[in-house]
Every structure is written in structure tokens, then in C-alpha cells.
Amino acid sequence: MKSFIAFLLLISLYACNQQDHQTAKSKLTRSDSLKMNNPQAPVSLQKSLSPGDTSYFKLTMDSGYHVTVPIKISAGKELFAALSSDDQKANIRISQIEFPDSTFDGPYGRELTHTIETPGNYKLIIGEDMMAGDRWKGDFVLKVWVR
Hints:
The chain has 147 residues and is of the alpha+beta class. It has helices spanning 2-26, 30-37, and strands at residues 47-49, 54-61, 67-73, 78-84, 92-98, 104-105, 111-115, 120-128, 138-146. The strands form two sheets. A five-stranded mixed sheet has the order 1-3-8-5-6, with no helix packed on it. Strands 2-9-4-7 form a four-stranded antiparallel sheet, with no helix packed on it. A hairpin with a 5-residue loop joins β5 (92-98) and β6 (104-105). The protein is globular and about 40 Å long.
């Protein structure tokens, strides 16, 4: 009988712990997610780009995470992006691009050239290339420009 009571107590403690964990997870905001994926980045990375504008983002990748960089494009015909790192073993790529209509395209490599069909809010999602290399974490630079 004592073992049955101990078993019920153990099950109830486990259930309470799972509920608290799920509640804490659901309270994460977009800015919290950005901080977790890129702890050194400012909360708002969004840049507005027009033809001829170039922006550089110095970012940090934690192994197993991705970094999302919002870009507002006010005008232009093509979007260009390039990743670089001092670490020759940097296993990073532009995984996806999210368009203003919430559709996605990708994966890409370290460089991206894409026709701009409509101005608006775009997102570049940068992560590890799961098909090549080992897990990687470190600093890198994203260069984005519009023509």
C-alpha cells in the first residue's frame, strides 16, 4: 500500500512539473526567441532597405539554433544577401526566406539572390546546414542589399 501511495505521489509531481514547463514555454515572446537564438543582438534588428542601401548585421549562432533577421524592403527589384565568418569551419547557410505574404522559399547556401515581387516585410532565417559539416557556433556577418 505504501508503494502505491508513493507511486501516485511521484506521478502527481511529474504532472505538475510538466504543466509548469509548458506554461513557461508558451510565455516566450518573439523578442525572447530572438535573444535565445542570438543573445548579443539588439531586440529589434529590423532594417528598412531601398535600392542602393546595404546593411551589415554582426550576429552570433548557438549550435542547434537559428537566427531570424527581419528586413523591410520599401522598393527595389532584387534582394541580395551574403554570409561570412572568420571561422573557416562555419557551418551556416540562409535556410529560408519568408515573404510578406507569409510564404517561404529555401534552402539556400551562403548567398541569396531573389527577385522582389512586392515591397514589404521579409525575414531571412539563418541556420546550420544539416546536410554538411558538424554543429557550429560562433560569430558571423550578414550583408544585405537591394538593387
